[in-house]
Amino acid sequence: MEIWKEVYKGMIPKDTYKTWITNSEERGLDIELWGSAYHVTIKFGNVSAIRILDEGIVQEGVYPDEEISKYKKNNFINCIYKLENGKFGREIEEMSSGFIDMVSIRHYVIITDNFNIDIVTEWEPALKIDTI
Fold first, then answer.
1. 73-100, pLDDT tens digit by residue?
2. Are 42 and 7 in contact (CB under 8 A)?
3. In angstroms, rounded to a whole number, what is the distance separating the alpha carbons of residues 28 and 47?
4. How many CB atoms lie within 10 A of CB 93?
5. DSSP helix/strand/coil, 94
6. What torsion do the CA atoms of 96, 53, 43, 6 make, to the nearest 10 degrees?
7. How many other CB atoms are there within 10 angstroms of residue 98's CB atom?
8. Dihedral sign for Cα atoms in the order 38, 110, 122, 96
9. What 8-state DSSP symbol labels residue 130?
10. For a surface tag, which of 26, 61, 115, 118 has the fewest beta carbons within 10 Å of its beta carbon?
11. Sorting pLDDT into bands at 50, 70 and 90, what band is 132?
């Protein structure tokens, strides 16, 4: 059963964010959230997998209704969640034929106004918040 846990709870300020995603071999994955008052950078380093879905086509059927409904009532204010036994993480483990050990990887999902971003990585993300 997939379980969501809030990461950096209460640290990401409420704002209307636009998403800027960069991923490279040199720097890894950076997700930047640009709001009217805040700029949030979430650095993941090198990741094993990433999936970006338009918010309009997901949630029902992609993620468990119980988990979505818990956070949807607050409009996903926390923005970043760590998933235990997440479906996308399990799919990546299966595709890798055991190359990825589910014990050592982490599955995160970032939910913004326009995107749902799944990240499978060995590393915990670093968070940086600046005022604009």
1. 888 888 999 999 999 988 888 888 766 6
2. no
3. 7
4. 19
5. helix
6. -90
7. 8
8. negative
9. E
10. 26
11. very high
